[in-house]
Amino acid sequence: MPRGPLSVEARVLRAEALAQRGDVAASRALAKGLLERDPNGPHARRLKKLLGENASGDKSP
């Protein structure tokens, strides 16, 4: 796992790449873990989008 000031960014990019590749389960697992660690962090919106949630945390229709 990457470490340092951009490690979270690297993991968010990995989750997005996994989703684009079609590995939805791995993408969702990674995004969920990152969001649980920092639910209001700078990447929360991107992670919620990967999980199909809107800004309030509700599932998108």
* Percent in strands: under 5%
**Biggest β-sheet description:** none
Give the topology string: H per helix, E per strand: HHH
Measured as a percent range, the helix fraction is 55-70%
- Counting H and I runs of at least 4 residues, what is the number of helices? 3
Average pLDDT level:
88
Number of domains: 1
Radius of gyration: 11 Å
Termini separation: 34 Å
Q: If you had to describe this structure to a student in words, what would you say it looks like?
A:
By secondary structure, this protein is mainly alpha-helical. The chain has one domain (7-50). The chain is built from 3 helices and no strands. The protein has helices spanning 7-21, 24-37, 44-50. It is globular. 16% of the residues are buried. The model has no long low-confidence stretch (mean pLDDT 88).
Helices and strands in order:
Blueprint: H1 7-21, H2 24-37, H3 44-50
Structure, briefly:
The protein has 61 residues and is an all-alpha fold. It has helices at 7-21, 24-37, 44-50. The longest helix is centred in the first third of the chain and has 15 residues, at 7-21.
